[in-house]
Amino acid sequence: VGVVKYGGGKTAALADWQMLGKTGTAEVPYADKPGYEPDVYNSSFIGAAPARAPRCVVLMTIHKPNSKISYYGSRVSAPAVGRIMAEALAYLEVPPDPESADP
């Protein structure tokens, strides 16, 4: 929950449900030799909501995002998870989470 409330996952926060989540950013290894491709990443975010009793989990991994724009999971994947999660919880008719209003 702290990642979404205070950390890199803020871009995934929902107005009506408290979400838990974790960002991820990883270098991409070469397929045919040791080491990592320069400026090439996998950017991810996994989120679940409502945090106290999750009804939905969303994992977004972006393979090789444009690193000139951004490559961090918090900037690339988390916002998409937030949008998908909001739609999914509304579709599933999950009632708003009173804890989402916590500061």
Helices, strands, pairings?
Elements: H1 2-6, E1 20-29, E2 36-49, E3 56-63, H2 73-76, H3 78-91
Given helix and strand content, the structural type is: alpha+beta
What is the helical fraction, as a range of percent?
10-25%
What profile does the largest beta sheet have?
A: 3 strands, antiparallel
* Oligomeric state of shown chains: single chain
How many runs of DSSP E, i.e. beta strands? Answer: 3
Q: Report Rg.
A: 15 Å
Beta content: 25-35%
Taken in chain order, the helices and strands follow as HEEEHH
Q: How much is the average pLDDT?
A: 93
Termini gap? 12 Å
Number of H/I helices:
3
Largest sheet, spatial ordering of strands = 1-2-3
Globally, the shape reads elongated
The residue ranges in which pLDDT falls below 50 over 5 or more consecutive positions are none
Which structural traits does this protein have?
3 helices, 103 residues, single chain, alpha+beta, three-stranded antiparallel beta sheet
Structure explained in plain terms:
By secondary structure, the protein is of the alpha+beta class. It has helices at about 1-5, 75, 80-90, and strands at about 20-30, 35-50, 55-65. A 3-stranded antiparallel beta sheet has the order 1-2-3.
Give a nutshell description of this structure.
The chain has 103 residues and is an alpha+beta fold. 22% of the residues lie in helices and 31% in strands.
